[in-house]
Amino acid sequence: MMQAGEVSRTPYVWGWLSQLLLCLLVLGIGNALAAQGPSGGGGGVRAFGPAPVRAAAPVPPQFDITGFIQEATLDTDGTICQASDPRLAGGTLRVNSIKVVVPCNTVLQMPAATLTWQELFSLAPRDIGLALDANGTPVQTGLALADTVTVPLAAHYSNGRLPSYEVHVQGNIVDGRYIAGLIFISQQNLNIGQGTITAIDYHNGELLITSEGPPPSTARVKINDPIGRFGLSHGAPGSGAPLIEPAYDQRFAIDVESPTIHAATGFPMCIPRGDPIADGDDPLCPRANRPRSPDCTSLPSPFPAFTMPPSGQVCTSFMMPPPPRNSCTSSKSYTCPPDPTQQAPFEVGDFIDFSGTLKYDSKGPYISAHTIVDHVGIYTTPGIMPAYVAIEMELQGTAALPFANLPSRLQSSLPRPRSPGSRTTTGERLHPTARHTGFRPCPSCIRRSRLEASSLRRTPTSGLSVCTPANWLWSVPLKKTGCVFPCSRRILPTP
Questions:
Q1: Which of 55, 90, 357, 382 could serve as a FRET partner for 47 with CA atoms 20 to 30 Å apart?
Q2: How many domains does the chain have?
Q3: Does 179 share its domain with 167?
Q4: What is the DSSP string of 448-470?
């Protein structure tokens, strides 16, 4: 007598055997056809040949080149690429005898401004002898060694043209062609000057830094400001600007959107547009924003009081009051209180860092500065707008995930995006955000996310670091995943 379990297995066993016989039959027929070949005879081409194995796409090698600009060309006829707008045309450059292709839509970084490759040509000075095309656009940049700069800038002080300009290019080598991805142009990337302001020429917009001899020398620092954001505007002959400079080059100007002329805490600074004593106070650069001792207001507790300079001297560290509710105009008999919504003027005795390009005029050499940092601590009232933020640097990482088996104390050294800086307010926690703009985002990219921010409140240790109550640092959290793109020109507050 068969059990129920044995009866139930019988159809399953026969079904399995029938499928196996069918597969063997099909396999035998396939082998026979393959042996016959397309003509029916033996030894022919197999009917079911193996699919070709494709090799993995090679990763193009990268390059990172720094050197003088030997040659620069603009692709006006679309040979390299077809630009959607003439301002986005590409071209080529030669550095260290290597020809680099500049693709369309390339946006290059000047010291304090961003330009397209075409604007590097169209914004070149018109009074240095460069040839122009039919549209009046220079066919050369005036920055390369091969460019024909025929007009001497200051023959009395210089026996030739100014030195060539430096370019830093990063990109990929594709089929032997060097394709640029990132381009940075400056006269000298590491150029920086320091000194104490010994005099201010208000009518010419110059900060003078005199060093003792023998013989004494004076460095002249002008702000390259084409719109008059931080003082009198500068321009080329015929521009109508209050201050005319021969061979004026707006490509190396300030950042007109974010202050590159500021105090150590990020508060914007300025040069008054006239002598405050002889010509009256500048309402956009009021003297009241540089109070004098004993009116150097300290930050509230628990921060220690600022060191008070001798009576009558300019405060080097102080806190601004809240913005005034009503407008105020200073006079000889009345001085308005400081206004945090206006810039603060440079004063004689300030120690500054300055970066720019070396230029010449009828008086001799001077620095056309795009960045000036005044070593003064100007703070705003905590919890009350406005508040100003300065970014010292941006370290762009390539991996935001933690490394396995690495102690947490070492995770901070990971190659993740980080940025230190300073601000004019204290106490509040910064909430910078990352937002993807300008390109079609991939699904894994961070479109908008809050980044970790931490205030550094520590006492200087062994003179190795100087930390103010308003120093800060932000970084991408290790738990975040996805792509993080390089910083653009702005940090947006959290809505």
A1: 55
A2: 3
A3: yes
A4: EEEPEEEE------TTS----TT
Which residue has tokens 């040979």? 79
My answer on whether 436 and 318 are in the same domain is no
- Domain assignment present for 50: no
Handedness of CA 220, 221, 224, 230 (dihedral sign): negative
* Residues 406 and 441 reside in one and the same domain: yes
Q: Does a structural domain hold residue 26? A: no
Neighbouring-strand partners of residue 201: 206
Q: Which residue, 293, 269, 154, is CA-closest to 200? A: 269
Amino acid making up residue 234: H
Q: Are residues 349 and 494 in the same domain?
A: no
Together in a domain, 168 and 97 = yes
Lowest model confidence (mean pLDDT) among 10-24, 155-169, 239-253: 10-24
Report phi then psi at 34, rounded to 5. -65, -35
Cα–Cα distance list, 356 to 50, 222, 254, 370, 373 (Å): 65, 9, 9, 5, 12
159: pLDDT strictly greater than 70: no
Contact yes or no for 394/487 (Cβ under 8 A):
yes
Rg (CA), the chain: 33
Q: Give the HSE-up count for residue 380: Cα atoms under 13 Å, Cβ half-sphere.
A: 26
With a CB cutoff of 8 Å and minimum separation 6, the contacts of 381 are 319, 320, 321, 322, 340, 425
Q: Both tokens of residue 205?
A: 């917009």
Residue 9 in any domain: the answer is no
Under a CB-based contact definition with an 8 Å cutoff, are residues 233 and 227 in contact?
Answer: yes
* Residue 88: other Cβ atoms inside 10 A: 17
Indicate if 78 and 160 belong to the same structural domain. Answer: yes
DSSP H or E segment with residue 235: strand 234-235
| SS3 label, residue 16 | helix
Q: Cα separation of 265 and 141, whole Å? A: 36
- Please state, in angstroms and rounded to a whole number, the distance separating the CA atoms of residues 219 and 444: 51
381/319 Cα distance (integer angstroms): 6
- Give the phi and the psi of residue 29 in degrees, each rounded to 5: -65, -40
List all residues 6 or more positions away from 334 whose beta carbon is below 8 Å from its beta carbon. Answer: none
Mean predicted lDDT score pLDDT of the chain: 76
| Domain with 362 in it | 192-324+336-386
Tell me the one-letter amino acid at 89. Answer: A
Instruction: Specify whether 340 is located in the same domain as 254.
Output: yes
How distant, in Å, are the alpha carbons of 215, 232, 350, 361 from that of 209? 14, 19, 10, 17
pLDDT tens-digit map of 74-117? 999 999 999 989 999 999 999 999 999 999 999 999 999 899 99
pTM for the whole thing? 0.75
Report helix, strand or coil for 144.
coil
Categorize the per-residue pLDDT at 452 as very low, low, confident or very high, splitting at 50, 70 and 90. very low
